[in-house]
Amino acid sequence: MSGVVVAVGLLGCGGAEMDLDQVDAVDRMGQEIVGGVEARPNSHPWIVSIQSYGSHFCGGSLVRVGAREESDIVLTAAHCVYDGLSSATVAAGAHDLSRPASGQTTVRVVRSVYHPSYDPDTTLNDIAILKLEKPIKFNQPVAGSCGDSLGMRPNLSTQLASGFTTTPVCLPAANESVSDGTMMTAAGWGLTREGGYDTSNILMQVGVPKINTAEVANMYRSQGIHIDPYAMLGAGYRQGGKDSCQGDSGGPLVAPGANGRYVLQGITSFGIGCARAGLPGIYTRVSNYIPWINQQIRLYSSSL
Ligand code: ARG
Q1: Is the CB of 248 under 6 A from ligand 1?
Q2: Which among 234, 7, 285, 1 is positioned nearest to 119, based on CA atoms?
Q3: Sorting pLDDT into bands at 50, 70 and 90, what band is 161?
Q4: Closest to 105 (Cα-Cα) out of 63, 139, 75, 68
Q5: How far is it, in rounded angstroms, from Cα 95 to Cα 118?
Q6: pLDDT for res 38
Q7: Using a 6 Å cutoff on CB, does residue 271 contact ligand 1?
Q8: Which of 39, 68, 72, 130 is the 20 to 30 Å CA partner of 277?
Q9: Is-catalytic flag, 2?
Q10: What percent of the chain has pLDDT over 90?
Q11: Would you say 202 and 260 are in contact if contact means Cβ atoms under 8 Å apart?
Q12: Integer angstrom CA distances of residue 71 from 65, 212, 218, 290
């Protein structure tokens, strides 16, 4: 991460007023996802916790690599892997990291590739792929699909016997854009202390609307940070209160597509503090990288 982004990141997640209008909001101010709620089981079946020596440090998303109901490719943020990985694993099908459920699998990461134009000083092109040692099997109900979130469709979640599902997230079409105001969901475990390595055990999620990119660029310009309209998108509330935060990086920002399936529109990238008024979270705009992602899948997946 750049000096500027790290410096501001260290200001942490607290400060902003929390929106406690949601009855089930879990009060974890100053910790992971800010102003969010505990994720419903099976809401984010593509999310993985990326861990080093068993400690969570970033999120990621499983993507479909071909027709098989398995994947060995995870999308994450470049800044999560830029300094190299040691004893990295990903946990899929996880919810409470302290109490692994029956469906949870942990697989070693054998390779990480960040975007060749990733710039740690500006956080431009903050995207990377991880190649897993062996593919993670999907156990979604509909073969060949993606983005099927049973947890976000509660009437369907009863069809599940037990444990957690693993499903790939859908990718957006190349250069697809998200309309301003579209409600999206960010999810993650996050760090519980600034600069520390304590993880939130429970997967949290928060709903954040997309904010007009010119407006986001204006907000960040005053902080000396350039928002690239093709490479980044901003989501959050002008008044603050709800946001992703440190340790949610690399994790998914999804929006439902036309068919109700969830599409990975963003990858949690950076912010200034968390949930502050006038400083929405910044996400890598996934639709800008579709050819690159497909190329990495062809190069590195063994599950094609
Ligand atoms: N860079 C942070 C990380 O590594 C993500 C911060 C997201 N910040 C925000 N305010 N949305 O986890």
Answers
A1: yes
A2: 1
A3: very low
A4: 139
A5: 30
A6: 86
A7: yes
A8: 39
A9: no
A10: 66
A11: no
A12: 6, 34, 39, 17
